[in-house]
Amino acid sequence: MKIFLFTLLLVELLFVARIDIKTHKISNYWSLLNVIIAILFYLTVKDIYLWSWEVLLFPVGFIVVGFVFFLMGIMGAGDSKYLSSLFFVLPLEMHLSFFEKLLLSTVIVGLIMLLIKTIPNFYKLRTYLLTRYWKGIREILKSRISYAPVILLAWIILGVEQWF
Q1: Measured distance CA(118)–CA(83) in Å, rounded
Q2: Contacts of the segment 32-37: beta carbons below 8 A, 24+ positions apart
Q3: Measured between alpha carbons, how far is 128 from 30 in angstroms, rounded to an integer?
Q4: Which of 20, 22, 90, 110 fits 94 for a cystine, CB–CB 3.0-4.6 Å?
Q5: Cα(65)–Cα(42) distance, integer angstroms
């Protein structure tokens, strides 16, 4: 079942990541699809999908944190809704492990993006820092990335760790 789940979500994440890179939007249909898949799994695969209030911790957490990040302009609304729905599809035993991989992939991609932004603008950024020109620093470091590829990277890291 876990290999089936991994493959199913890998294919889905490949589609969603491609769409997110092209359009910078994740449709609500993907979140709805995940909720439907989760309901089917909870109704049919009783040995792995056991319902308890703990199943809601990460999905509700991502909705709340995602909403705050959306208001701050850090994360898109579709990203947080999709991520929340993705945790519904995962069995409870995978929540913490996937969250750890998500943090790892976010740090990796964030550091790479920081290097991409700072290296070509190093002297300008240094001047802005010395003169405390915060608006200029923000303009250099500001970037809008698609988060679905980061989720895909976390999923691949989880799969490699689990099966290889």
Answers
A1: 29
A2: 32/85, 34/82, 34/85, 34/86, 34/88, 34/89, 35/85, 35/88, 37/8, 37/89
A3: 42
A4: 90
A5: 25
Give the count of beta carbons closer than 10 Å to the beta carbon of residue 59. Answer: 22
Q: Give the burial class of 81: count Cβ atoms within 10 A of its Cβ; 0-12 exposed, 13-18 middle, 19 or more buried.
A: buried
Per-residue DSSP letter, 35 = H
User: What residues contact 2, with CB distance under 8 A and at least 6 apart?
Assistant: 48, 162
How far is the C-alpha of 63 from the C-alpha of 66, rounded, in Å? Answer: 5
pTM attached to this predicted model = 0.86
Regions of the chain short of the pLDDT cut 50 = none
What's the CA gap between 148 and 156, in Å, rounded? 12
Instruction: Copy the structure tokens of residue 45.
Output: 């695969």
d(CA 41, CA 48): 9
